[in-house]
Amino acid sequence: MRAEVFTPGLxxxxxxxxSALLAACIPSSREMKASFSxxxxxxxxxxxNAGVDGEGFIRRPNGWLARCSGNKVYLVxxxxxxxxxxxxxxxxxxxxxxxxxxxxxxxxxxxxxCDQRGRFAFSDLPAGKWFVITRISYEARNDxxxxxALYVAEVETTSGKRADVILSNPxxx
Length: 173
Prior knowledge:
- It is a single chain.
- By secondary structure, the protein is an alpha+beta fold.
- It has one domain (29-171): Carboxypeptidase-like, regulatory domain (Immunoglobulin-like).
- It contains four helices and twelve strands.
- It has helices at 18-25, 42-45, 80-90, 98-105, and strands at residues 2-7, 10-15, 29-30, 50-59, 65-67, 72-77, 94-95, 110-113, 119-125, 128-139, 146-157, 162-167.
- It is globular, with a radius of gyration of 18 Å.
């Protein structure tokens, strides 16, 4: 069987079996070593007077921008647990049992939504280190490229101040 595989800005052709193609498309899964404890995340759950202002966009291969417009943006503590979660995703693997684990740590995360210009904000945060996560995707009509990926940046909040963060091409995981 002959198949064409498209990646952003790159076209690769070759003889690929259906099972090899599926195996290449399905990322491996890894178990979390760190366990989640809501008590460990209480310092980040407190109400504070810091904030985060951000924007999510990527530059497409044709030079146009794609924004996170309408997508959720998550703010999670930069704890050992969430650091491991992100490291697993950066490695190209999926987190095993991710949907069950997400239910456990839902109370430790905050979420908002990107506006039409790809901007977002979080308020009432305590001082600390955080991960900001969003998805940016697009599909070009007349071109041979598309994108659907997570973007992550670490940001530190300071009491009484607003931190700025940009999620863009270098933040892709």
